[in-house]
Amino acid sequence: MGLSSIGTANEEGVQLCIFDLRRGQREGQELDKILYFFPADLPLSSQLSVIGLSEGLITFTRIFSPDAACEVIEAERHSHVFYEAEPDIWMVMIVAKSKEAEAIWRIDALREVLKEIHSLFVMFHGCIRTLLDKEPGGGLTRAHLYPFVMDYLRDFLFGKKLQLPSFRDCLKERRTVQMLTVGREAAIEVQTLVRILESSAGNMPCFSLILFQDLLVSTTLSPEDTINMFTYAVLRLTPLALFSGAKSWSYLRKGNSSSHVSTGSTLFSTGSVLEQFYGSRDASPAGDNRYHVTRPLQHDKWFKGKDGFLVTDIWGGDIGSLNVTTPTVWLQQTEERMYLCAYQYKSLTLILLIPLSSILNGDQGVSIVKQQLLENASLKILKVEEKLSKGWGGENAYHVSGYRYLLVNGNRDISRASPPAKVTTLAKESLLALNKLREEVDAEKNRAKWDNPGREKDLEVCIRVKNNAWAIACITGGKELYMVLEKANETLLYASDAVEKFSNRYCNGAFSLD
Amino acid sequence: MAGKASSSQTSVGGLGSGAVSHVFIHYPPLRCNIPGSRGFYYDDGNKLLISPTSDQVFSWKTVPFSPNAAPNIDSITEGPICSIRFSLDEKLIAVQRSNTSIDFLHRETGEVFTHRCKSESESILGFFWTDCPSCDIVVVKISGLDLFAYDHASKSLALVETKKMNVSWYVYTHESRLVLLASGMQCKSFHGFQLSSAGIIRLPKFEMVMAKPEANSKPVLASEDVYIVTVYGRIYCLQVDRVAMVLHSYRFYRDAIIQQGSLPIYSSKVAVSVVDNVLLVHQVDAKVVILYDIFSDSRAPISAPLPVLLRGFSRSDSFTSRPSTKESESLQASDSNDNESIVYGDGWTFLAISASSSEIPSVLEFLQRRKLEANKAKQLCLAIMQTMILECRPITMVAKAMDVLVTSYAHSLKTGTYFKGIKTERTPSSVSNVSGSGQVIDVNTGRTDGLGKSLQRESAPRVNSVSASDTEDSSSLEPSKISSNDTQFDGGKVDIGAESCTTGNPLNASVSDQQESQLTSPAISPDEMYKFVFAPIEEEMIGEPSYLVAIILELFRSANLEKVKVHPNLFVLTIQLLARSEQYAELGLFVINKIIEPSKEVALQLLESGRQNFQIRKLGSDMMRQLSLHQDYVLLLVQDGYYLEALRYARKHKVTTIRPSLFLEAAFTSNDSQHLAAVLRFFSDFIPGFRSTSDFFTYYHILNEMNSSSVVA
């Protein structure tokens, strides 16, 4: 069986599967392995052959590298991206390659998508393994995974096509947080607000996250939880996410939500039969209804209430009567379930996370906390919003003229990049060159990670592109800087000067080494 | 005005420690035995206590008050004495003999000349000396004011100016330089003049409010019912309305007199005095004193009424020429014996009172305005602050308290009073000049709505109104005669300030507590805040790291607002606290957003606290680099095993102080012969003579061994 046979049903599309290597090891029970498959309407036999191939490759590569089996398989027309989300639970994404369709990928960027799906899933539903242990039949897990991933993928839907991050997104970094730069005075105000917010819950240990527009202002969560909560907030909670139709400039929401309604249905609704299959594979006549599944990524489900708090009926209840169940999330840091309270004032979104265990009377207790929050923090919120708005330079605030850049601080999982509108002015050739360069850097980084774990590698590459642009990558002390300089002088000295200048001006000289 | 002396000022240690004392009587009292004394007079211009006999004048300096001081004795001619005042240079003694004549005695020569009214119909109500440039003495008559200059050569008075008006009676205090002249049927119409070294200002005529007991009766205002008081450099007039049983207050501006509201009174007999800018209303019949701080918006007393003990006492006027300006000295004379008097100097202290109040931020505000016992007020503020934190009071309350202290410090810094006591270099005070002249335009343009404007000012937020007392403090730094006195500009309103505690003018020094302590301001600097508030409680607050961080944050906020630097150790403490409670996310934000300001100490603490957290350590090393602490940074890189990067960095920033063996050792431990070779090569190339050092030979040898062993393997 060749790789080419896989794509027949979905020639140019994307396949994404999640499977468990510990399941379906006996002949005739292979279907047990499948926890999720996209597109769902692919015949089960084809699904099995995709998973079978992946499993085979994993088993084979584990012989040489038991701790880290294969990461990617590059076939002639497809790339297979592997990600071991949890021990023996794998996610595999298969994308077709095609120059004409702009289907040129950076593998690490695709893997970040898989990571994101998994991390978000865990934040809402807990580990996949835990779900599987809870109900060994797998029905519960499938019933959760299917709508979740579908809702997630909808964000990548343009027309009838899924548009995954391609070379055009090479100046973006998924799984990082974008931060608002604030002055000392505003920062102090924000931090005092954080204290007030967290004191609203009395003596309970709680956490908070503050966003301005789609940028993070403050967090008290661990880095990993911050990324997840930030991602969810930007996807569904910030003002720009809330008012669908509003144009977003964050890469996290590239889809145009109106398209979901019209054309999105064709791709996803064809699976309705199979949806039933996924939901009811255990031959339960009740189908979907057997499980109470919340769909936190569902679109257009969050609203801003009159009191400024964001409400949703995703977790149950009736939005009309405002008698809704408070959303909950699971934090990795504390390994605890938390109530999620989101409050919005103008561009400011505040998220307060309170442990379930510390509130005895559920939703009633939460509303007391909310009341407290309003009483204690309202004035401060007003003040902070005003301060931040005053200092806010608009969506092009972080544009540096002449440069198209991406700055990643790997130590803190923070990134900052040229605004997307500015990046689109770059020639395709420049982007392709940088994409290629990034692939090389990714490979180099991965190699260094294996050769010398725990050590950071410094690296600097400047490439002259055919269209006379410079594609530059600098890595030092865990920080990465990628940039494209078009219409630039041809000397290498010029290019490294440009980096030096940028570094001194915007990176505290982090990249000014020689 | 005697008070009960259950003296205990030792309440500094804690809040509400049950201190009840409000009066502290200086002991021993001044005892004097003057045969034939005709009573006591108080000369507020020179702060002299005067006791004349038929042919002699005994005088004591009351500031500084010393019970053992012997009186000065001057001989005068015999005759009746209506009032007696020394000239401001104390060379002359003026004695009013009748309502038509005043005798002048030259103290050195003993010469005497007499000034008489021109016509018999004129009657002298009184007189006072002035430091006004154009005249030396002002005589108040029923027909108006006569301003005279004293001619040293001819030893006589020369009439400078006459201001004609009907005068029923007058009040004057030297502190305010203000004379109020009552006229009219009810004596409630007033003319006012301020005669200061800046010149003569004529105030607009105004009427005082009097309630009518019945439809047809019209009460007459008496001079005993009007007091001029000076509080925080502002001049007020307090008027007793016996019918309504209220005390009306008026504030004087250069171009307006504005009623400020009323205080209730509980006694038909009321005396008013000011101690350390606190208004004391002595309700004589009720035998209590009620204290008000006019500065704050509230008209509520600052403490519960305090008891007054009166002993054989008629009325304070009998001892002092004007009762309303007793300053810090309240006097008591026992007139049971004509020949013997006991005078006590009372030092009022409000510290104990304020410690028992529950509104802590306003207490601190009150204490910060104290001038008399600045040091004690300061100690008390520090103690209150510390106690608040230890007791984990609500953050908002502590924040307010913080604001009070920081604002007060910033203010004292601006006006220079903070440094006055500390004797360091003074900050140039050109600021007040600039803002002053900038406001002049406002005065002119704003004159049309002057009244409304000044009313508005009164209700303005406190930060603004603080500037009102600015003038008092700032003047002390300015050398010019004009600004050291009475006319000051204040927020678009020309304000008649009172005589201020000018250090350059000993005659006028109104409130001086130099014998008490060197401090003139209870303001607390950030260093003191750290040393006396945070450092001592650090240990005790270990259990509440996030509370303490919240408090420190509030301090940062206030300090930032007032552009005051905080103590660098507070940054280090903040890092320790956040790291201890593993709040690394916050700590990161604190550093990135420079809430914690970068410094070497901070960087080192980040490295230390970063042992448990890689991200924090990274912030520390980044800070090292950004602060250009090149040598430390290179050492850090070598320590962490980044010796090649360290070499690169050392070369770029010309760090030559680190021994090559450190790098070689690091390369050797990494067990990479290529790297070791590279490091050797580096030093051979860049350090002249390196090839002949023992380091070179040692590591060259090691390198050869490494290479040969790898070949064998």
TrEMBL record, chain A:
InterPro entries: Ccz1, CCZ1/INTU/HSP4_longin_1
Pfam families, sorted: Intu_longin_1
Domain CCZ1/INTU/HSP4 first Longin: residue ranges: 17-126
Family: Belongs to the CCZ1 family.
This protein's name: CCZ1/INTU/HSP4 first Longin domain-containing protein
UniProtKB/TrEMBL annotation, chain B:
Tree of life domain: Eukaryota
Domain Mic1: 512-696
Biased composition range(s): Low complexity: 429-438
Sequence ranges of Polar residues compositional bias: 477-488
InterPro entries: RMC1, RMC1_C, RMC1_N
Pfam family, one: RMC1_C
Region (Disordered): 316-337, 426-497
Domain Regulator of MON1-CCZ1 complex N-terminal: 41-157
Protein name as catalogued: Mic1 domain-containing protein
Gene source species: Hibiscus sabdariffa (roselle)
